[in-house]
Structures are given as C-alpha cells and as structure tokens.
Design brief:
- The complex is a heterodimer of chains A (348) and B (273).
- With 348 residues, chain A is mainly alpha-helical.
- Chain A has 15 helices and no strands.
- The longest helix of chain A has 36 residues, at 66-101.
- The two termini of chain A are 40 Å apart.
- Chain B is globular and about 55 Å long.
- Helices cover 32% and strands 26% of the residues of chain B.
- Chain B has helices at residues 46-53, 76-82, 98-103, 118-130, 146-160, 176-188, 200-206, 224-227, 230-237, 261-267, and strands at residues 8-17, 20-30, 35-39, 61-66, 69-70, 83-86, 164-168, 192-196, 209-214, 217-222, 240-245, 252-257.
- Chain B starts with 7 loop residues before the first strand and ends in a 6-residue tail after the last helix.
- In chain B, strand 7, helix 6 (176-188) and strand 8 form a beta-alpha-beta unit.
- With 273 residues, chain B is an alpha/beta fold.
- The chains are: A mainly alpha (348), B alpha/beta (273).
- Chain A binds chain B through residues 4, 7-8, 11-12, 14-16, 99, 102-104, 226-227, 229-230, 232-233, 235-237, 239-240, 242-247, 285, 289-291, and chain B through 54, 56, 76-77, 79-81, 83-85, 87, 90-97, 99-101, 103-108, 110, 112-113, 116, 118, 121-122, 124-126, 128-129, 134-135, 137-138, 160.
Chain lengths: 348, 273
C-alpha cells in the first residue's frame, strides 16, 4: 500500500511541477529578453546593451542622447516588436493547425492564405493606385478571400480534413497563377517591389501598425488556451476525441478560421515568411511533449526569439543591404529539416 | 414487454449507406451491469452498431434510447461523462506519452477553464496502477505493445469514470494472455460493458449475454444457450461448429470443423426469405 501511494505521489509531482519544463520556460524567457535587447543594440549604428537599457527605461537625467533614443524608439523597436509578434503568431498557428488537422506538415500557409494575400497586394500595387487603399489592406482582403474560397470549394466535404487540405492547396495554386500573371505584365520596378514584399520584410514597420497583429495574436493565444483540453484530445484521433465529448468538426473549422485570420493579418503586414510555423512547433514538441498549453507557451518564447534573430541576420549579414526575411527563414528551415531527417533515420 | 430499466434500447433501428442496409431493423435492450458480447462475421454491422451507441453515427432511422431518453437528446458532454469508448486502433501521429493519453479521460469532466487538481493527478496514477502501467506513464504511447496500448485506453476510460464501457474488438492482434487480461480488466470494473469480439470462445467465457449479428440483422440474442448453438453458428459463419462443455469452466466450448465449410453452408437450413 505504501508502495502504491509513493508511486502515485511521485507521478503527481512529475505532472504537476516538472522541473525540466520549468527550466526550459525560464531559459527560453531569458533567451527572449536577451534577444530583444541584443537586436535593439544591433544595426548600422552599433549601441551597447547599457545604452539600450538606458534608452528604454530611463525617465529623466539620461546619459543617452536624443538621436540614440530616436534610433531605438522610432526605428528599431517597432521593427523588433513586429518580428516578435510575427514569430509568435506563425508558431502558434502552426502548432494549432498541426494538431487539429493531425498533420505534422501543416503550416499557416497551407490553405493558400499567403498566395491570397500576395494577390491582394499585387493588385493594389500594380492596378489600383496605392493612394486609394494601402497594400496592407489589399493583402488582408486577399487573404480573407482565399480562405472563403477554400471553404466554398470544399463545400460539404468541409468536415473531412483531407478534402479541406486539398482544396486549400488548389486555391493556393490558382491564386499564385493570377499573381504571376499580373507580375508578368507589370512594370519592372513594380515587379521588384512586389517580389521583395512577397519574400517578407520588417523594414517598414511602424508603431501605428502594431495594434492589429498584436491584437489578433493575443486574442488567438487566449482562445487556444481556453480550448487546450479539446486541442490535446484531438491529437489522439477524431473518433476518439468524439467519444470524449469534443465537438471535432466545429472545433476544427473555428480553429482553421482563427488561424487563417492571424496569418492573413501577419502576411498583410510583413509579407510571406515560411517555415516558422512548421519548424518552431516541432522543436517545441520535441522539448516539452505534446500537452498543448506547454507547446503553446514554448511557441511564444521560441517563435518570438527565432524571428528576431532572423531579422538580425537579415539586416546584418550583408553590409548596407537587407536580405528578405523569407529567404533567411527558408534557408534555416530547410537546413533544420535535413538535420531532423538525419537524426530520425539514425534512430531507425 | 416493457424495458424501463434498459441502458440502451433500440426500436426498429436501421442505418443505410447508399441503399445498402448496414443495420437492418434492430430491436434490443441492454440492461445495467450486463457484459454484452457482440458477435458475428466481418461486415455483420457490429462496429456500425457500436458507433450508433456512442453517437458517431446519427443518421439512423428508428429509435435509440439511452436511459429511456432518445440518445440525440443528450449533450456531447453528458454522454461522454457516462459512456467511455475503447476503439480498435488508437492512432498516434504525435508522440503522446502514456500519461497524456490517460489524462484525456478528464476531458469531459472538466470545464474549459479548469486546471488539473492534485486529485485528478492521483486519479490518473491510480488508473495506471489498475491496468498495471504505473511504471510506463512517461513512455511514448507508440512504443507500447498492442496489449499495453489497449490497457492504456482502458485506463483512460477508467479516468472518465463512466457507467458504460463500449469496446470495439479490443482483443484484435493480441496474444491469448493479453486477450484474457483486457477482458478481465473490463469485467473487473463492474459496469455495463458492450464489446464486439471475434473469438467466440473468449466471448463465451466473459459475456453474460450475446447479440449475434449477420448482414446487419440480429440473428439471435440471449445467453449462451440461446445464441451459441451449432445451428446458429453454422448458419452465420458458414462452418460446421461443435459445442461442448469447456474443460476448465462451466461455459461452452466451441470447435469448428475447418475442412467442410462450404458443405455446411449448403446443407444448413436457411430461414431467410
């Protein structure tokens, strides 16, 4: 009897208060804070961490000059905050889409959202004068339309996840074709701007643009956490989740729409940045297991750090030149997958 | 005859897919505390019937009552609090740990805003203890053997604390020792159990009552004397069956003559129109 209660309490400890998990969370939080400060210090004008700290937190009698403050507050912070929310948002939606579709390859761009947003942006840039509506707005409308189109095309088979994925892929190709067509007939300078936009960039981020990405990412994070039990249960199979009282189809559809909304807002603001939504959730699961609340928290910490680092690399790898963020994430991402494949095949 | 205390009661229950009758006008009553074995050849409709009971299939005709109320009138949560289901293949795409799987049993018992309490964790641990998996809680679910997976799924059902346990061929792919283990475990819960089983001797040893199905119809229903007789089995399975006393138990033992299967089908008296 004493053996049993000992085992029981040992297990309770493990599940309730997991030291390894706690250390990971603390470590990742410290990494995020360091990343944030380091990225603020890095740039064409190099600043020390002390200067950054002062510029951020000193109220009066500061030793940093106004120009430094201006660089930090007006140029670097909005950019870093945009990178942060993008990384967090894409990692969170990736984790959720992978669990509700039970497809480890699911990704926020799977449903043609990025191609829809790109088409919207292209139309605004190439056809409608930008004075009338902004590129961001065009991309937002484009992303929303692509999701609507996917749901319409899927029609009654919207309950079957495979059909839904296939119709998403079809929409994606269809919209990409339109984008290419417009690109083909547009002026070279517009085509260049467009290409750069599509590959993703945080260069033009402004304070006043941040509210929408932050608003929707925080909202989505809250909703994901509320439904964490259902989202965990669905990972063991649809029918099994059904027998636990989980409304599988409504849950999946509403999560898809919510993730699409997050992705559309992010793509509209920063362009198409791939691989983050695929890679970060996999790393997080590897580190903390599959309990959704843990995975999501790690996605916030690691996704944010990762994207800020990518931006640092993108703007400091080449002198006086900013690389497209999408190029850096895809390069790092594919490398990551090779490593995973290698380590998996070694295990087998 | 009134069935006021039935847990499940079907009246003229039918289900068809594209004009094909999968369940053909079924009437039955499952009483509280019974261990009911659903037997019959492949494609007889056993799994479909079970899927009706846990409300995965809803477009049936006829009536299906759960505790004297239409099954449809319950909320998902009410059902999940009373009916636990162990499915044939617990699939695992993600690397769920055994503890993760067992903890899922809490899903219907908790509101969306509630966190696991110390009691819940103890419940998970004691369920794992009950199915003898206490030392494997942190292991990857996919790394378990077939028998251990089934036991983990039963532990999940135990955490759910149901009044009814439905199991769809829980003994498939298991060796004889683990087949017996799984059914013993189900029996030890002392709740209503509805289980589909292929192995008739196993069914004979554990079930109080049998529902024998073929081509979507109920061929026979009742205790082993009423259901497990040579004529029924020859008719339904198309092989010659001999039934005698099991050498170890009071239950019947079924032996099949594997050689003259076709002849048996031809010679067996067909009552169907």
């Amino acid at each position: 009897m004493s053996g049993r209660s000992h085992k029981t309490s040992l297990f309770s400890q493990q599940r309730g208060f997991n030291l390894q998990y706690l250390l990971l969370v603390v470590g990742s939080s410290l990494l995020l804070i360091f990343t944030f400060l380091f990225a603020t210090a890095t740039g064409s004008v190099h600043l020390s961490l002390a200067q950054v700290w002062e510029a951020l937190f000193c109220v009066d009698q500061c030793s940093v000059d106004d120009i430094t403050k201006k660089i930090i507050w007006d140029i670097r912070l909005p950019r870093i905050l945009m990178a942060l929310v993008t990384g967090v948002g894409l990692a969170l939606t990736g984790a959720i889409l992978q669990s509700v579709t039970r497809n480890p390859l699911a990704d926020p761009y799977l449903f043609g959202i990025s191609s829809g947003s790109a088409l919207g942006a292209v139309i605004v840039m190439a056809i409608i004068p930008t004075a009338v509506i902004s590129v961001t707005f065009g991309a937002l409308v484009g992303g929303a339309c692509s999701v609507a189109l996917m749901l319409i095309l899927a029609g009654r088979s919207v309950t079957q996840v495979e059909r839904l994925l296939l119709s998403g892929v079809a929409v994606s190709f269809m919209l990409s074709a339109f984008t290419s067509l417009i690109l083909y007939y547009s002026k070279p300078e517009i085509a260049a701007t467009l290409l750069f936009w599509m590959m993703g960039s945080f260069s033009n981020s402004q304070w006043h643009e941040l509210w929408m990405p932050y608003g929707i990412v925080i909202l989505a994070f809250g909703i994901f956490l509320i439904f964490r039990r259902w989202l965990t249960a669905i990972q063991a199979g649809e029918e099994s989740a059904h027998t636990l009282g989980v409304p599988v189809v409504p849950l999946r559809l509403s999560m898809l729409v919510l993730c699409s909304a997050v992705t559309a807002v992010l793509v509209a603001h920063v362009g198409g940045i791939g691989f983050v939504g695929l890679m970060i959730p996999h790393i997080c699961r590897y580190l903390v297991g599959v309990q959704i609340d843990r995975v999501l928290l790690m996605c916030v910490l690691l996704g944010g750090s990762f994207m800020i680092w990518v931006d640092v690399i993108a703007r400091s790898l080449l002198d006086n030149q900013v690389l497209p963020v999408g190029v850096v994430t895809s390069a790092v991402g594919s490398l990551f997958f090779f490593i995973i494949l290698k380590s998996r095949s070694r295990k087998v | 005859m009134s069935h006021h205390s039935c847990v499940f009661e079907a009246k003229d229950l039918s289900w068809q897919v594209n004009d094909r009758m999968i369940l053909d006008h079924l009437d039955f009553c499952i009483m509280p505390g019974e261990f009911v074995g659903l037997i019959g050849p492949n494609g007889a409709g056993k799994s479909s019937l079970l899927r009706c009971l846990y409300r995965k299939i809803i477009d049936y005709s006829g009536d299906l009552l759960f505790q004297n109320q239409p099954l449809q009138s319950y909320t998902r949560n009410q059902l999940a609090r009373q009916i636990a289901v162990v499915l044939q293949e617990p699939p695992g795409q993600f690397e769920l740990s055994v503890a993760d799987v067992i903890a899922m049993g809490l899903t219907p018992l908790k509101s969306l805003f509630e966190f696991d309490s110390e009691q819940d964790r103890e419940r998970i641990a004691s369920a794992a203890e009950q199915v003898d998996l206490a030392d494997k809680l942190e292991q990857n679910f996919n790394s378990l053997s077939g028998g251990e997976k089934q036991r983990a799924m039963i532990a999940r059902a135990i955490v759910q604390n149901p009044q009814i346990l439905i199991m769809d061929e829980p003994t498939n792919h298991l060796d004889i020792r683990h087949q017996v283990d799984v059914l013993k475990l189900a029996k030890s819960l002392n709740i209503t159990v509805v289980v589909s089983i292929h192995d008739l001797n196993l069914a004979a040893a554990f079930c109080d009552r049998f529902i024998l199905m073929d081509h979507g119809k109920i061929v026979a229903m009742g205790d082993h004397k009423a259901v497990l007789n040579e004529q029924h089995l020859s008719e339904v399975f198309g092989v010659v069956a001999r039934i005698d006393q099991h050498p170890f138990h009071t239950t019947p033992r079924i032996t099949f003559d594997m050689q003259i299967a076709n002849e048996a089908v031809v010679n067996s008296p067909k009552e169907q129109p």
